[in-house]
Amino acid sequence: MIVQENASDHTSGVDASLVSTYNDRIRPLLDAIDKLRNLNVMQEGIQLPTIVVVGDQSSGKSSVLESLAGISLPRGDGICTRVPLVIRLQNHAQSDSLLQLEYLTKVVSTDESNVAIAINLATDEIAGNGKGISHTPLTLVVKKNGVPDLTMIDLPGITRVPVHGQPEDIYEQISDIIMEFIKPEESIILNVLSATVDFPTCESIRMSQLVDKTGERTLAVVTKSDKAPDGLHEKVMADDVKIGLGYVCVRNRIGDESYEEARMKETKLFQAHPLLKKIDKSMVGVPVLAKRLVQIQANIISKCLPDIVKKINMKLNANVSELNNLPQKLSSVAEAITTFMRIVGLSRESLKKLLVRGEFDEYPDDKSMHCTARVAELLDKFSEEIKISSDNNSFLMTEIEVLEETKAIALPNFLPRSAFQALLHLKIKAMAEIPANFIAKVWDYVETVVIAVVVHHCEKYPQFQSHMTVAARNLISSVKEKSTERVLEIVEMEKLAGYTCDPQYLAEWKKHLVYSGNLNQNSSVINFGFFGNINVSHLMNYPIGIKSEAFDLKCRITAYWEVVIKRMVDCIALQLLLSIQRFANGEMEAEIVNEVMDMKEGGIERLLIEMPSVALKRERLNKSIILLKESRAVVAKIMDKIAVSDD
Questions:
Q1: Which of 63, 186, 189, 318 has the most crowded CB, counting CB atoms within 10 A?
Q2: Closest-CA residue to 277 (of 265, 289, 269, 266)
Q3: Which residues contact 106 (CB under 8 A, 6 or more apart)?
Q4: Which residues are paired to 152 by β-bridges?
Q5: pTM more than 0.85
Q6: Cα torsion 281, 284, 287, 289: sign
């Protein structure tokens, strides 16, 4: 209910000339900032110019704000302000004052007689009954004739010792709220100090100095000047605590004094008191304080507006870009199928480029995706690994042992076929795991490439990604298993019999065998050509016949092993190329399509369901974009008005 009160009892002490001089200029700016604050633009990380009122408990904060607003605020022992109280003063042409509270999406009308009660009730609703505090703001809108156009945020008074049921960490809680509001460079700190205390000992001074070391955005209002006039002039002139925006000394309203009476007594006090009259008239009185605040507020808003526009645009562009990069939402089964087939087609083409054609234009700088080159390197390592696999016995000892075990009643100048076969089996056994390991390495590498390609093309459609990667892994596992089986077959084939039509075998055998005559040398180190200089002292006790047969057998198996290695590497390489080509050209596409199309529990329609995290992020970004666009429009409108008025 709005109650009309006696104008003589509740007239603000602010001069009418003050209102007419500054309010017409500041009101549009302040309206714009208030609209931005109501839009919660600060939640987007965009700070707004704000006058923040801080002070130690019982410093007289409430009295100062009452004098500026011309209304009574909650009073009592302990903390009166338990939530950030945003006080929006608006000069009102009509004689009737209009007051309302805005909090928790509510708007509650009140009047001057009941405003203190209404604030207490709203505070209890926000912060709970008792003495706890909250970061959630409560806004008090005061539309009243003669008040200065100001928006201020009153914060809880600072207390170190919890009393009257206050939380044990009340100081830390209050400090957190105060620092949250005074830390931004856009905040003007109105530091309320009592004349009855030493300024350097005030906790509010210590806090403001933490964030405003030079004091360039701190204004001090000194209350209770009539209670401690001694030395007050010297204190404000010495400025031991670095108040860059200066001091304003005021007299608190006492008892049932009307605001008009209080201002008259204040004027008389600073004119007549022998000590207080020494203070310059530009530093005393509530009207001076109102004027200073209006001027400071106008300056900081004008200074910050261009930067606010810049920050709004940057945040808006960032949010739009983030929204555009979110996974695309699919609206129908037809759209889902079309999108899915397009992704499959793009993935197939990328894999054909990478795995078959050796084209790397999609990944020019990522060498791990240059597949044909990397697979060729793996093949080279495989070939070298097979070549160096051999037994660790001394020269000719393996051959002698095999001959001893394969001898039979037969002509002495024939090498047993079983001896050659036994040596061949020994060499194949030594390298049997190498081909299978090579195949595993290749397909593991191919899997990383395939998954990277699928993830890239599904970047905006994560609902496809999991199904496509599962299908790709399943297919690669199957192909790897088949490739391994074929490679093991190649190895098994080499065990069956020693055979080749390659004339190189005989040529190499004869070339090596030329050095068999050197076995007759009476020396511990003998040159055997391809085999190098060999210490043969361990062969001294063996007859020349057995040594000659052993050397002949070694020459045969060495020449043949070169053929086996070439044949095995060639066959495995060609088999691998065929498997990779089949995989890239169609097998993977078919597997992925089957995986997605055959999904149970709703089939492809499940792909239309957006992931909850993405849906929440999309909703948040859309709301943020709407808010920022509205904020930009608000600021643009006021800046246009400023430009017109300047012209």
A1: 189
A2: 269
A3: none
A4: 51, 87
A5: no
A6: positive
